[in-house]
């Protein structure tokens, strides 16, 4: 009976080594031995195997940045200590060497590191390089590391009452970062969604911007209704004939990821982050607009309800969200609208 099995990844096993192993396995088979159980195996190091796991999983990463972060965590905190060790020699003491120094000071990073080490060791076991319980699981079950109560840190946000004055300040600035920040404030979108925005995603006739799934945290396309104020920001930028709506210093490339935050610092706006404007919009939607929760949440591209509820409620409430975004745009950009909205609160 024919049996097929791999000889190892191309970055670990050279062509000559693969040929030698294949010949060795054929000789064993001729004598009645099963190569799977009788052949000598070169045990890769933890670093070699982790890099192979990273390569194998590249097609599954949500985006290139996430994939790079995955291997970078291992590169910074695991490879210097256990990278050269054979993958079958890594046990609880070696894992503890990686986790313990950063467990309390960099707890979120340490948790990600533990999960990624566990993944590498699980895959190694499935490939026959390891046996027994995963040491990361054993450490967790034994509660060998102290419990850390991590405080949730929210993005610092501007009070919604202060947004119109801030927006008026932005409006007199000519920098591309100012235009991008104005658009971000009005749409309640995330930084990456706005900076990666391309003209191909914009339907001016339907007055809709469709942000593709690969840039969305939810992994699904998100339609953003475009108001008059939003269109007044982006339409003049068409004259640049760039692929990107908010072009950076390089032709056909977007603005830097830090451009809007640096603008806030130059404006000496303290205690505010770009992402925080999403929270500002959400507060206004609750306190002033008084819209149903699902309308406000969908405007921020948040998932609403359980999996079952979402399976039945498939509408993205575009028309209702358009009404909400019109009111928000009017409030942010128009002093008279501001007076009306404040009156509603009272």
From TrEMBL:
In terms of PROSITE patterns, this protein maps to: TYR_RECOMBINASE
**Gene3D superfamilies, per the entry:** 1.10.150.130, Intergrase catalytic core
Q: Is Heme one of the keywords UniProt gives this record? A: no
Q: Kindly state which keywords UniProt assigns to this record, in alphabetical order.
A: DNA integration, DNA recombination, DNA-binding
**InterPro entries per UniProt:** DNA_brk_join_enz, Integrase-like_cat_sf, Integrase_catalytic, Integrase_recombinase_N, Phage_int_M, Phage_Integrase
Q: Which domain of life is it from?
A: Bacteria
* Pfam families in the record: Phage_int_M (PF22022), Phage_integrase (PF00589)
Domain called Tyr recombinase: residue spans: 153-325
Tell me the protein family, please: Belongs to the 'phage' integrase family.
Q: What is this protein called?
A: Prophage integrase IntA
Species of provenance: Roseobacter fucihabitans
